[in-house]
Automatic annotation (TrEMBL):
GO terms for molecular function: ATP binding; ATP hydrolysis activity. Gene3D superfamilies: P-loop containing nucleotide triphosphate hydrolases. This is ABC transporter ATP-binding protein. Belongs to the ABC transporter superfamily. It comes from the Bacteria. InterPro entries: AAA+_ATPase, ABC_transporter-like_ATP-bd, P-loop_NTPase. PANTHER family: ABC TRANSPORTER, ATP-BINDING PROTEIN. Keywords: ATP-binding, Nucleotide-binding, Transport.
Amino acid sequence: MANILEINNLTKSFGSNKILDGINLQIPSGTIYGFIGKNGAGKTTTMKIILGLLQADEGEVLVNGEKVKFGQSETNKYMGYLPDVPEFYGYMTAKEYLILCGKITGMSKIQIKKRSDELLNLVGLGDDKKKIKSYSRGMKQRLGIAQALLNKPKLLLCDEPTSALDPLGRNDVLEILEKIKDETTVIFSTHILSDVESICDHVAFLNGGKIVLNEKLVDLKKIRKADGFEIVFVNHEDCVKFNQDYMEFEARGDKTLVLKNGSQEDMLFAMGNLAERKIMVEKIEMLEPSLDSLFMEVIDDGAI
Ligand SMILES: Nc1ncnc2c1ncn2[C@@H]1O[C@H](COP(=O)(O)OP(=O)(O)OP(=O)(O)O)[C@@H](O)[C@H]1O
């Protein structure tokens, strides 16, 4: 599969503060890429360089095989961009706004009509006649996605698209991004790891100016050991009794115990013990490694 984006040895400092320290990234078409980093890691800086809005100190960026040049918009025809807080003309309706954007980018009237209807339906604003100023943050974010997709970009860059939204708004945005992935590769910067887990198929972690991890999500989970296991008891009393004998388990709620980093052997031992003592349980299961725990490892170690 061809790479829609290639970043080679990208370096950027602000004064003496080195934000990007030789980052490399290859992003294949047709993926949803989670670009993860804590606040201030340099996610927005990277996106601005990809868009040609900021000059790199060293390195190069190729979009659809073409080199990005600072201050020139040549490669931006392949890209849509959703900033973290998109700005609109509040006195317009969503449709009026998309028509204006279409005119600015030189689309024909017929194209504008067809594409804006299509996109407003996609983002759930098809029947909306309200002025944008009355929109919720979630609605604005969805309109921002529609605008970024107007010229059918091959690559959509979303800068923290869900960070300011409530769970419902976040879900709407994630569902839209998932729907478009066959046509548009999505790079999605965030520090909300559950969002990445729910829709991304690749993740890259930016930390200390470097990409410290870059994997398919499924592979990442395979190579990481499980996060231990949990036992859910049928009743609270059994849970307490078992915990008194095995204090290395942590209680989670009334009827659940977790053995962090517990192995399969530990789990088999616990199962044998429960059977011997005729203690009924609802379930025992190994816990999937979460991105949260991986993220903490990366942040702590600087690398995996
Ligand atoms: N124009 C600038 N001049 C000086 N420092 C800057 C400039 N732009 C960004 N920085 C600094 O670079 C660092 C990285 O910022 P950036 O916005 O890229 O981080 P981020 O990963 O997007 O974080 P966030 O999640 O907070 O948006 C921060 O310390 C920021 O203060």
